[in-house]
UniProtKB/TrEMBL annotation:
The HTH cro/C1-type domain, residue ranges: 28-81
Highest taxon, organism lineage: Bacteria
Xref: InterPro entries: Cro/C1-type_HTH, Lambda_DNA-bd_dom_sf, MLTR_LBD
A Pfam family per the record: MLTR_LBD
Species of the source: Aquipuribacter hungaricus
Protein name: Helix-turn-helix transcriptional regulator
Amino acid sequence: MDRPGLAAFLRSRREGLLPADVGLPAGARRRAAGLRREEVAQLTGMSVDYLTRLEQSRGPQPSPAMLTALARTLRLTDDERDYLFRVAGHAAPDRLVMRPHVAPALLRVLDRLQDTPALVISALGETLVANDLAVALFGDPAHRQGLARHDVYRWFTDATARRVYPEADHDRQSRALVAGLRSAHGLLGARSRAGELVVALTAASPEFVRLWEEHGVARRFEDHKVLLHPETGPLELDCQVLFTEDQLQALLVLTAAPGTPAADRLALLRVLGTQPYERAGAGGGPSGGS
């Protein structure tokens, strides 16, 4: 581990960011350029003392999970993320393996979307980061573990995951999720997380097996959706998508047409937040399409 190198790199990246770059208000006049340590620590989920010690070349070796969180907060590119891992004494993650590092370009767009649900998902339907309205609509992804982090796995193994969609849309959603998984399986290979999902779902769901054998292949997110929320009722939303160049991540933005009941219900959802939804239980996820 190169402590001086790590310290200098963290300081330079923190000082190179503005509050607006990470979705924070500018606030009072700042004495120094860049983000405050308190802001980086809060966004990363670490203590200010820990970050201070890292920036002063006297901290312990950060774990890969902590480095991943720092890379997200500091909006690092893949090359910068790889350097961060190496200077901290870890091997750089394999870029072809699905990982929770979110593309900085997508994060910059997400940071500016506060009045409509928006989230970044992986090619396997894992929610990597979501704004408050998306959490209120779909539930908090931070509570999900293992294969249950993927929409397709929950859809075929947990009946509660289907509550967010009307029953009439269940077959279409099932086919879209399976077709998306096959697309990811072809991209990432049988030994990847996609292959692990196929093996697990083949053992768990006859419905999945039937649809998998149809060999449908598609990545469809742009759609006109009806989503069900336990407090607001149905929301008729349009879903638009922005992919990264490697097609491994996508930013999903859900909007309601102005002046519609769905627009009014989204406004209500902004007021309600996540508490009513948490009491009702987490539902499904955003993946799938037309």
